[in-house]
Amino acid sequence: MVSAELPDKEKNPKLYETVTTCMIHGLCGAAHLNAVCMKDGKCTKGFPKPLSEVTKGNVAGYPVYRRRRREAGVVLINGKEYDSETINQWMVPYNPYLSQEYNCHINVEVCTAITPVKYLYKYVYKGSDKAVITVEAVREEGNQTQIEPNETLRI
To answer: What is the DSSP string of 6-27?
Structure first.
């Protein structure tokens, strides 16, 4: 399951704390042109995301996640004021279980096209730097056997 909404603080305070600490994209846009993610006047990560009452599939790429409008007000997160109505536009998609379990930023997206699957497959199986090691047994006096296998290990 993927969520892109601020969880209820009363029902799940631990998840709320993790999400408000780790899963909100920093303020950017026309009012914050100096933000790190801004290039040519636009957020390179596509924030703020559109509000939506339901999650909609998208064959060409990422789905439009459910991001409902909240009640009017102000939400104070990490010392920054966010408009409570539109806070969900700034939420990075996350899995509630993983976020709560590991208490860190874990961006989870639904994959609906073949291109990301191919990318992930190549990324996982591309291999990494290789190292050659030599394992030698400790010699005892009078023992002439020595083990010298070379193994290539993936580190």
So the answer is: PPPTTT-HHHHHHHHHHSBPPP
The strand pair at 42-43 and 80-83 is best described as unpaired
Neighbours of 9 (CB within 10 A): 13
Q: Tell me the β-bridge partners of 81.
A: 76
As a whole number of angstroms, the distance between CA 77 and CA 82 comes to 7
pTM for this prediction: 0.70
Percentage of the chain exceeding pLDDT 90: 45
Name the maximum alpha-carbon separation found in the chain: 84
Least confident among 18-22, 113-117, 126-130: 126-130
Residue ranges of domains in the chain: 13-113, 115-154
d(CA 23, CA 105): 6
